[in-house]
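Re-run requested by the PI after the first attempt was lost when the workstation crashed. Everything re-entered from the original request form. Ligand of interest: 2-acetamido-2-deoxy-beta-D-glucopyranose.
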Amino acid sequence: MLLLLPFLWASQAASAAVLAPSPNAANPACDANCMEAFEAALATERAMWATPNFADDPFYTTPTNFTGAKPGDLLRWQDLTAEQLATNWTKIPGGMSLSRFLYVTEDVDRQPLPASAFVLLPLAPPKDGDKYNTLAWTHGTAGRARQCAPSNNQQLYYEWLGPFFHAAQGYAVVAPDYAGQGTEIRAGFHYEAGYMHAADVAYSLVAARKVIGHLLSKEWVVAGHSEGGMTAWRTNERLAMPDQKELLKAGKFLGAVAGSPALPHPRSIELANGGPLGAPVSVYLLQNMVQIYPELKLEEILTERALGLLRLLDQGCLDTGVALFANMTAAETYKSTAWLTSPQFADWQTRYNGAGPHALAAPMLVVQGIADSLTYAANCEWDFNQTCAAFPESSVEMYLVPELGHGPGFQAGQPYFSAWIARLFEGKNPDSGCKKVTAKPVNFRYQHGRTG
Ligand SMILES: *[C@@H]1O[C@H](CO)[C@@H](O)[C@H](O)[C@H]1NC(C)=O
Ligand SMILES: *[C@@H]1O[C@H](CO)[C@@H](O)[C@H](O)[C@H]1NC(C)=O
Ligand SMILES: *[C@@H]1O[C@H](CO)[C@@H](O)[C@H](O)[C@H]1NC(C)=O
Ligand SMILES: *[C@@H]1O[C@H](CO)[C@@H](O)[C@H](O)[C@H]1NC(C)=O
């Protein structure tokens, strides 16, 4: 498996949605099997989009008052009605309410960008005079196209793995889509750009406070999985860097839960060991990198088959991408993997991903399945070791879950990390220093090796 992440292209209800006749006929890169898998995945995904034809939803269009606006400004706010939830966001658990909003974030050069996010609130109001504890949820790979924004997904990517779980526990969940998923930005969505996603997180809170500040605790934590696990980690690092005054207006940052973090790690290609890469995640990254570094050319990097599949890839989101790419090895996908050792990749890692190690602003809990074949435990431990060696005064814990893969390893850690988060809100900080804990299961009869 090459670098990074995805997860849970799980259990979405099959749909009878009829696809419009598509420009997809006679693609030599995609035989009949492949077309069948593609169309089935796309239909299932489309049925999960809150607005199935994304172009019909004016919400994500950048408003004119974006001009001149500053990071943290609010651009648009929409409380979804009970009727809209009943028709367009049918998977939201009972009693929860949803708002979505557009706001201003910034790119790596601190130029303003429009971004979208959602807020999920529990039924019960905060205790008298009190506020909800505030949790920023950072989503894992959803795809690359604009319509893949979690706020446009009936399950809000990734349902009980994140937003539903935390709102059910009484948190106000604020969740950025990340700039370019949902909104339209130059160069398109910057997949895996952790340094930028960290700004999206902080500014989503700054903007949300302008409307529902009376409901949100000043204190906040960030928790996420996969691409979002990496983002939670990067957020914790970025908030400790110099010149982050505007981001720090997000509130009092208490800590981060980094689940199965998709830290970009060229070593993953070796770990895939010639086998299928499992998902198109490195292709999503490459599609963005050629926008940032025009001297890199897709035609020189991807095989003919992979290039042919690109015509189909961004019609859908991750599940569609998996249907198209999952059975391809590195050699079937890439003419050359030299881009992974290129100066452009090194530049991207530093400036866009924000690869560390860097000091941390607050405690961090890393949750990782030992049998993860998408973001390998060995890679995660390597980064954990780097942080511990460079910043031994940090408070970092790594919680390892035996026999489980990318999604289930994180999910199985929920009781452990939700207790960890609750203690932060009680003002009880974990000790400084690094520690590693391996979960001791009550038995080993659970399904081993599960990845999704
Ligand atoms: C998997 O790869 C083979 C070629 O090796 C192809 O014929 C087949 O259609 C692929 N399956 C899917 C679902 O794309
Ligand atoms: C909700 O679903 C309807 C029917 O598919 C669609 O026309 C509409 O654009 C959707 N979005 C919103 C935000 O109502
Ligand atoms: C942009 O307009 C919206 C809707 O009127 C408003 O809520 C928001 O505060 C405005 N933002 C800026 C930065 O002017
Ligand atoms: C991390 O550090 C521990 C303790 O020093 C060591 O045993 C382990 O091999 C290291 N892991 C990696 C992946 O570097």
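Saved to the shared folder this time. The domain at 1-6+13-452 is CATH 3.40.50.1820 (Rossmann fold).
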